[in-house]
Write a structure and sequence with these properties.
single chain; mainly alpha; about 70% helix
Length: about 90
C-alpha cells in the first residue's frame, strides 16, 4: 500500500530516480498521516529506517543512505515526532 525505498545494499545510479523514490515515500507518509493513519505512517518510517540502519551496519555509507535518513527525519518532524527525528539525524 505504500512505496518502499529501494536501498537494499544497492546504489541507485540515477539521482533523479532516488529523488523520485524519496518524494513518493514522503508523500505517502504525509498522506497516511493526513488520513488519520498515523500508525501506518510510523510503520513506513520505522521499516525504512531499519533498512537504512542495516545498510549502515554492513558498511554501506553513501549519499543514498544520507538522503534517506534526511527524508525519514523530515517526515518524523512533519507528523510531530521531533525526538524521533533527532534520533534519526544522529545516525
Amino acid at each position: 500500500y505504500a512505496p518502499r525505498l529501494d536501498h537494499e545494499h544497492s546504489h541507485i545510479d540515477d539521482n533523479h530516480e532516488l529523488e523520485d523514490q524519496l518524494d513518493a515515500f514522503f508523500k505517502e507518509v504525509k498522506t497516511q498521516f493526513e488520513l488519520g493513519n498515523e500508525d501506518v505512517a510510523v510503520m513506513l518510517l520505522e521499516a525504512n529506517h531499519e533498512r537504512v540502519k542495516e545498510d549502515l551496519d554492513s558498511g554501506v555509507r553513501g549519499i543514498e543512505q544520507a538522503a534517506i535518513l534526511d527524508v525519514i527525519a523530515l517526515a518524523y518532524m512533519g507528523i510531530g515526532h521531533f525526538s524521533t527525528s533527532m534520533h534519526v539525524l544522529e545516525q
